[in-house]
Amino acid sequence: xxxxxxxxxxxxxxxxxxxxxxxxxxxxxxxxxxxxxxxxxxxxxxxxxxxxxxxxxxxxxxxxxxxxxxxxxxxxxxxxxxxxxxxxxxxxxxxxxxxxxxxxxxxxxxxxxxxxxxxxxxxxxxxxxxxxxxxxxxxxxxxxxxxxxxxxxxxxxxxxxxxxxxxxxxxxxxxxxxxxxxxxxxxxxxxxxxxxxxxxxxxxxxxxxxxxxxxxxxxxxxxxxxxxxxxxxxxxxxxxxxxxxxxxxxxxxxxxxxxxxxxxxxxxxxxxxxx
Amino acid sequence: xxxxxxxxxxxxxxxxxxxxxxxxxxxxxxxxxxxxxxxxxxxxxxxxxxxxxxxxxxxxxxxxxxxxxxxxxxxxxxxxxxxxxxxxxxxxxxxxxxxxxxxxxxxxxxxxxxxxxxxxxxxxxxxxxxxxxxxxxxxxxxxxxxxxxxxxxxxxxxxxxxxxxxxxxxxxxxxxxxxxxxxxxxxxxxxxxxxxxxxxxxxxxxxxxxxxxxxxxxx
Amino acid sequence: xxxxxxxxxxxxxxxxxxxxxxxxxxxxxxxxxxxxxxxxxxxxxxxxxxxxxxxxxxxxxxxxxxxxxxxxxxxxxxxxxxxxxxxxxxxxxxxxxxxxxxxxxxxxxxxxxxxxxxxxxxxxxxxxxxxxxxxxxxxxxxxxxxxxxxxxxxxxxxxxxxxxxxxxxxxxxxxxxxxxxxxxxxxxxxxxxxxxxxxxxxxxxxxxxxxxxxxxxxxxxxxxxxxxxxxxxxxxxxxxxxxxxxxxxxxxxxxxxxxxxxxxxxxxxxxxxxxxxxxxxxxx
Lengths: 275, 219, 284
What we know:
Strand order of the largest sheet of chain C: 2-3-4-6-5
Oligomer: heterotrimer
CATH superfamily of chain C: GHMP Kinase, N-terminal domain
Structural class of chain C: alpha+beta
CATH topology of chain A: Ribosomal Protein S5, domain 2
Largest interface: A-C, 56 and 49 residues
Structural class of chain A: alpha+beta
Shape of chain C: globular
Helix content of chain C: 25-40%
Order of helices and strands of chain A: HHEEEEHEEHEEEEHEEH
Number of helices of chain C: 5
């Protein structure tokens, strides 16, 4: 009976739950799904992390390669984030080139990396104007149940913290680079950005961490990315319900608290993994 | 904290293209965007939504092919327009908004939003309210510069763009670059909100001017 | 990736660091014991799990040593492209290697190996699926290799079949895949990526890789891939080794299906004594 009602009147179904300050999956409005983290499971990647936020699963693998820096910025390396939403993760996606959604999330990741300064591109330079690292950060969604942005940011940060780069020297005779695959160095992570996404329902109810269903019904979403020095490095509200200043401030405060929890989780997971 | 409270000179020209249903050219300083609106018209079968109109925004950069960054802007602009257009009045139809960048010298996103809004008015697409956008930049010293040009944007530590609805002046869209504190955010927000009122009233004047002209022609 | 405007572009040209490595890579030498200490005909530890993708009709995850494969099944659903009416349903397979799955970074765009792999998996599964049970519709199987440490194709076949079973798609039997690497006199079951390595200059002796897809309870072979050059007798022997390998994986797969059904249907828990494995597979 409940299932039929849900199919026929999804909005009304949802409204009745929210009236009682609870969501259909049993969470409170401000509650975030259980987050689990697995670091370093892909040994073919220089760094990797698998994150589950409820059902939503994202795996991030980072491959490091050597290349020439650009002439305009000879002291800088590259970080190339790409989010893949394959047809495997949800029936909404079809095989073929990246969907608009994938492109938008990829761009958001690129913005977050740039704005937060999580990795200083200067750290990736080996020889000025000659040789630098490029980090291909590929985030692959394995299960799309809403809020991929938050999940992608956690997986990216955890994978970056997991990266070990082989030592590179430039041989004096030939000028060619020589890598020492035995000796590996971690990457210097300057900032820890964490994203928190909010959904607005019926232009009134504000809830955190929307699931796929909730994202479809929401009248607006808002993503706030904060770093550990309590600064905002991305505030992304693409249209939707207009929000007042006080509600935005409320969201910022909640995002700051959530970010602290996630950083603690990442820290604990890294410490528990013997390397 | 001091604020440079002035917007660059802005202006718009409506109905300058003959083929689209509505068009507008919006200028903020040297930044110019040309917007054209087609619709409500026929929709592609695959994009049809049964209870409302499908809104599409095509963002055309000055040179080169659109990439991920342009797709991202397109999505932001589309969602912004979707939240003001009364799409349920035209089910199973399409409204296309084409934004051609003529020149980008800073505050591009806000100029695009404003151009789209004027073009939608020109096409007589029913809307809940108007949307007006303002960009501001935060300098290294924490000073707020409203409506920055490209040089100011480059030198700043953060650039924030807000779009407000014209009824209650709440935030419809927010898109930011760079790092800033929550306090700086709130200050920028209020500064932009004040400035957006200028743009809203300008929209009103522009429409009045155009309507009075048309009425004169008819009588 | 030049010319792909739908992804964030990196530099024009880059190379993996191991290109410049000083020390040579170690590969499995002929005649020696295997690097992980296995016997020549031993399988690596296998881990199987179903129901990993919440959005899919059915899904499965498989680990064979370090090889990690995930498969999701969607359908039966409407055929996306309008085609002529068919009484038979359609099965579609797509095999993809994640960009970080191998030592050398892979590209986002489907390459030849992935295209061939998709076809082989499709051909291995088709005989097992009752296509006539869902006319006018299609079942999509998407397989992603998260890490390739050898025998990825065999793992993909097994994982896809398990995903189909989890989705409740009617099947005559499940399909189990297994590979054998023949290197001179040595025959290694379930090779790792180091054992799969083929030197540029091959010796005159037997060299090749055999992958078999087996319908274990019917004892029929649904797919057979052989590359390299093997003498007829060696080839037959290699196929036999593959089949015994498949029979070794089959009980693990059966156990996995039984326990997943128990999880999904709690009422079975009380009368678990009577449940037969046939009932669990549903369609076998």
